[in-house]
């Protein structure tokens, strides 16, 4: 992985030498700018973006997991709502950005909501399928141990849906950061999207613009690695069972 | 121990599986329930476990009408009873954790239950069932026999007085199956359990059931009972009585279906 990073850096450097114009500074210059800026202005913008993503994750998990568990358990409710989900799921949520901005104006809320919409449906569908896929024999045998609704939720449904939550997050975190970038281009003066746009199109400070691009990439990368790491720790049974199988 | 009086149950009202069905089981008895698939034997077990409710008639266990799973009844199913995301030890501890979760409320757990240290109650069972070496494995990493041993351990940690088993050994290979059948006999004697074991295998019914309930095509209205008093020891499998019991059961089943 380190080697891959070095190769990418060298390719970038070669391209920069080839183009040899200010719109493509070399990695050395960009990283130097990044190292300085991340402790200043860029760091603040990065924190704002990070907060928006984390708040969206928290919100979507908090709402999608219970909804998914309920749908997964109730065949009738699922039959009623699944056409609706079927229509809503493929909508590219990014086109809703202007609408959310109209309704919720400037500030963090519309940005958090747009990421929330992306994550919510992914988590909802995966948790629903996971809960529906639980074998009735398992539920019955745990009920026979004395478990009522609350204990079933605590000991069966919740641990069973964890892999689904983490898989959904892993699949959609990249999209979420991409859409955050688009959302931060409008009606805000904070966030990495704004930072990149400002330095690229208004101030023409290309090293800073590239530092912003690097920061946004690192944000996506770090979130992906975090989710992946948690998945490996929490869902060790899938890893070892997979290796054994 | 168990009293069924004029019980009626079916998944749809026009096709009852049991109709006006009466049956009783005394404490300490070992029963096999034998019948072809679709005869309603699993349904009967689910009724006894409190997981299904009769549409008419009454069902009493230990003198109490049964309207929910009873804390002192253990249920063991053919497969899929273990949680794939939990280790063998965590699975065995599940029943005790559920009890700790509710406290001794008399509904989910016996009113006099003190759960105490999980490890002290779980580890002896892991050892007794030969599961110590796989205690930190996940069910997917263990054999079918080990999974069934874990399911049995999980139930017995709760000190049941009634053990219900639904085709518990059907998916195991023959040596493992006989091994676990022997173990079931030992545990029943040790723990003074009332046992009801549902099976479609004539040999298993004859080996484990001192009394055998034979079910035919539904709806079942009358209980056909075959007494098999010599069953209950490991040696019985080698005896002539066992062989002739198997023959008798085969004829009875043939006459029913």
How would you explain this protein's 3D organization?
The complex is a heterodimer of chains A (245) and B (257). Chain A has helices at residues 2-19, 27-37, 41-73, 75-88, 97-104, 108-133, 136-144, 149-183, 192-202, 206-234, 236-244. By secondary structure, chain A is mainly alpha-helical. Chain A has a single domain (38-244), classed as MetI-like (MetI-like fold, Orthogonal Bundle), CATH 1.10.3720.10. In chain A, helix 2 packs across helix 10 and helix 3 (41-73) crosses helix 9. Chain B is of the alpha/beta class and 257 residues long. Chain B folds into two domains: 1-72 and 162-257, P-loop containing nucleotide triphosphate hydrolases (Rossmann fold), CATH 3.40.50; 83-159, no CATH class. Chain B is globular and about 50 Å long. The model of chain B has no long low-confidence stretch (mean pLDDT 90). The chains are: A mainly alpha (245), B alpha/beta (257).
Mean pLDDT of chain B: 90
Q: What's the number of structural domains of chain A?
A: 1
By CATH, the topology of chain A is MetI-like fold
Task: Kindly report how far apart the N and C termini of chain B lie.
Answer: 30 Å
Helix content of chain B: 25-40%
The chain-level mean pLDDT of chain A equals 90
Structural class by secondary-structure content of chain B: alpha/beta
Subunit organisation of the chains: heterodimer
Record the SSE blueprint:
The complex is a heterodimer of chains A (245) and B (257).
Chain A: H1 2-19, H2 27-37, H3 41-73, H4 75-88, H5 97-104, H6 108-133, H7 136-144, H8 149-183, H9 192-202, H10 206-234, H11 236-244
Chain B: E1 2-9, E2 18-25, E3 30-34, H1 41-48, E4 56-61, E5 64-65, E6 73-76, H2 88-102, H3 118-128, H4 144-156, E7 162-166, H5 174-191, E8 194-199, H6 202-208, E9 211-214, E10 224-227, H7 240-256
Parallel strand pairs in B: 3-8, 3-9, 6-7, 7-8
Antiparallel strand pairs in B: 1-2, 1-4, 4-5, 9-10
Helix pairs in contact in B: 2-3, 2-4, 6-7
Which keywords apply here?
heterodimer, A: 245 residues, mainly alpha, MetI-like fold, 11 helices, elongated, B: 257 residues, alpha/beta, globular
């Amino acid at each position: 992985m380190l080697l891959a990073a070095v190769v990418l850096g060298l390719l970038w450097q070669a391209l920069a030498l080839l183009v040899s114009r200010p719109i493509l500074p070399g990695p050395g210059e960009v990283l130097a700018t990044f190292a300085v800026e991340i402790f200043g202005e860029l760091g603040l913008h990065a924190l704002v973006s990070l907060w928006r993503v984390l708040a969206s994750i928290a919100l979507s998990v908090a709402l999608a997991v219970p909804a998914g568990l309920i749908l997964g358990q109730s065949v009738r409710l699922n039959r009623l709502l699944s056409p609706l989900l079927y229509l809503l799921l493929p909508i590219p949520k990014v086109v809703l950005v202007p609408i959310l901005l109209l309704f919720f104006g400037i500030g963090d809320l519309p940005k958090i909501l747009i990421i929330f919409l992306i994550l919510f449906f992914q988590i909802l569908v995966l948790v629903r399928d996971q809960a529906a896929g639980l074998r009735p024999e398992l539920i019955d045998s745990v009920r026979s141990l004395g478990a009522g609704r609350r204990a079933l939720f605590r000991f069966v449904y919740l641990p069973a849906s964890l892999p689904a939550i983490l898989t959904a997050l892993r699949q959609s975190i990249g999209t979420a950061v991409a859409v955050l970038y688009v959302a931060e281009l409008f009606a805000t003066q904070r966030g990495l999207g704004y930072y990149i746009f400002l330095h690229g199109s208004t101030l023409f400070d290309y090293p800073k613009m590239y530092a912003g691009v690097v920061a946004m990439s690192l944000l996506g990368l770090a979130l992906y690695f975090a989710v992946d790491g948690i998945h490996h720790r929490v869902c060790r049974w899938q890893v070892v069972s997979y290796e054994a199988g | 121990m168990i009293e069924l009086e004029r019980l009626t149950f079916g998944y749809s009202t026009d096709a009852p599986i049991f109709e006006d069905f009466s049956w009783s089981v005394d404490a300490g008895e070992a029963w096999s329930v034998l019948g072809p698939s679709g005869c309603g034997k699993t349904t009967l077990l689910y009724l006894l476990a409190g997981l299904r409710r009769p549409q008419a008639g009454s069902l009493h266990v230990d003198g109490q009408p049964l309207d929910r799973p009873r804390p002192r009844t253990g249920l063991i199913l053919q497969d899929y009873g273990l949680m794939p995301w939990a280790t063998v030890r965590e699975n065995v501890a599940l029943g005790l954790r559920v009890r700790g979760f509710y406290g001794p409320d008399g509904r989910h757990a016996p009113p006099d239950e003190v759960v105490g240290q999980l490890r002290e109650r779980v580890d002896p069972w892991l050892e007794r069932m030969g599961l110590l070496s796989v205690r930190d494995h996940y069910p997917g990493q263990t054999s079918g026999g080990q999974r069934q041993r874990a399911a049995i351990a999980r139930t017995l940690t709760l000190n049941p007085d009634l053990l219900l088993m639904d085709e518990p050994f059907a998916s195991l290979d023959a040596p493992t199956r006989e091994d676990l059948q022997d173990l079931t006999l030992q545990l029943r004697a040790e723990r003074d359990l009332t046992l009801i074991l549902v099976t479609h295998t004539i040999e298993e019914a004859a080996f484990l059931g001192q009394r055998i309930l034979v079910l035919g095509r539904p709806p079942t209205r009358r209980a056909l009972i075959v007494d098999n008093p010599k069953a209950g020891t490991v040696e019985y499998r080698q005896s002539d009585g066992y062989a002739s019991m198997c023959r008798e059961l085969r004829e009875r089943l043939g006459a029913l279906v």
